[in-house]
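Translate sequence into structure tokens.
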Amino acid sequence: MAFQRRWGGLALPPAPAYDGGPRLFAADTPEPAGAGAWMFETGPQRTAVPYSFVIGPDDAFGLAAGAVVALHDSIEGWIESVALAHEVAGRARQITTLTGPEADAVALAGLTPIPEVRGRADTWWWRDPDTLVAAYGGEAAALDFPAGRTVRVYSLR
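Result follows.
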């Protein structure tokens, strides 16, 4: 009920990953998530995907494809991530998308994380003052499909 009161009806721009994400937020009926825990879908997807977008037992925003994979610590983290992607895409001079082994080769150690996205399987980093890096690993983890891991590098200069 709290999710629906706060977020119900909110529509966001399409997310750059996950075929755009949920179209709008609308809480569904809670479902079992194993070990006495629960989860619920956050709303209808923009396209047909083999998973649901859910709020998990620990209030994390994630994907459910059998198991729940947390993308962000909270719904706010997902919203921050989508807003950041939308904003930076409009300002970037170049966007480089890498997948699978190429994405795995991107050195993320030592980069400065952006705490507002509250990332788990997905997160954002500053590489330098003019470069942002977004890593999307939730779909790869949820579907046991390592080739699905994606990294986007946004160059602002």
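Note: The helical segments are 2-7, 75-91, 100-104, 138-142.
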